[in-house]
Amino acid sequence: MKALNKSKQRQAILDFLCTRKDHPSVEVIYNNVRDVIPDISLGTVYRNLNLLADMGTVKRIRGLDSVDHFDADIRPHQHFMCTECGRVEDIFLEDPSVVTAMEDQVRRHHDSVTGSDIYFYGRCSECLDKLPES
Amino acid sequence: MKALNKSKQRQAILDFLCTRKDHPSVEVIYNNVRDVIPDISLGTVYRNLNLLADMGTVKRIRGLDSVDHFDADIRPHQHFMCTECGRVEDIFLEDPSVVTAMEDQVRRHHDSVTGSDIYFYGRCSECLDKLPES
DNA sequence: TATAAAATCAGTAATTATTACTGATTATTA
DNA sequence: TAATAATCAGTAATAATTACTGATTTTATA
Fold first, then answer.
1. Reduced to 3 DSSP states, what percent helix, strand and coil does chain A have, rounded to the nearest 5?
2. Count of CB pairs separated by less than 8 Å, A with B
3. What's the CA gap between A53 and B11, in Å, rounded?
4. Does A128 reach chain B within 8 Å, measured CB to CB?
5. Contact at 8 Å (CB) between B85 and A95?
6. Contact by Cβ (8 Å): A91, A80
7. Are strands A59-62 and A68-71 parallel, antiparallel or unpaired?
8. Helix axis angle, A42-55 relative to A8-18, nearest 10°?
């Protein structure tokens, strides 16, 4: 897989994504990048996000809402998803060795284990405030 | 959330799902259930899978192919996804305590952690045979 | 059992998310 | 600078999913 050429559209998408920690959807990315490049098309946003994800420059996250979300932070980390509002937050485990230990466990039965994704579920603090009970 | 009434369509969907360990998609479920109930509609399959998933009777899995897959096995377990062919296999960790240990780590920063999903990625044995190198 | 109320259905239309296609433009290479 | 390749905007098409409607079935109750 060879490197991509430069394009201001792709750069603008990546620049925007780097400013966000909340794993925006394609729709959100599209709307925001249009502030910079008003005539960018939705197809271009999709195509470039897919290219960037294929290259490993960004990470695709499939949330609870069945639309793709993207993250420019590709350091190994996990995610917390609010089952109430769908918000996705980053989790950096204090002791990440448990993850590699798990992968090693799995590797005993599957020759090839190249990585893992871990999603934690619960209610985010904001939703807990809104609905203390139930 | 109250219990569902009985319906032969819903039962047929659930019966079929219980026979499968490969986390079929809605499309696959639909085609197979039609062997039993030829005039069942795709909308009914969707609606019932969503109802069953909401009740916790089945588990929804979002794979690499962005279509929903379903699993009638709701025991806590993990999944292995082949990055080559998309196949989803069950993983039962020999030492599942690492999962609860991780959840406890997360619970220090998020008051409410109700569960987690773990996906391992790699190539399944079948795809490894096909493409030993690369 | 008969009947009324509620749940569920099939069929289909509509919506939403995503991908594919086309000819024009832009970037890279030599 | 000219040739080649990559990328673009715009749009059409596809695929997945949900919503709606009036008919049917199931459940609860008398």
1. 35, 20, 45
2. 106
3. 40
4. yes
5. no
6. yes
7. antiparallel
8. 70
Q: Which residues of A touch B114 (CB under 8 A)?
A: 83, 121-123
For nucleotide C26, the protein residue with its alpha carbon nearest to C1' is: A7
Q: Note the pLDDT of residue A19.
A: 95
pTM value? 0.86
For the stretch A71-110, pLDDT in tens is 999 999 999 998 887 888 999 998 889 999 999 999 988 8
Q: What angle do CA B87, B131, B128 make, to 5 degrees?
A: 50
Average pLDDT, chain A: 89
Tell me the β-bridge partners of B78: B91
Select from A36, A58, A38 the least CA-distant residue to A46: A58
CB B106 to CB A68 under 8 A?
Answer: no
In this structure, the dihedral spanned by the alpha carbons of residues B97, B98, B100 and B104, taken in order and rounded to 10 degrees, is 130
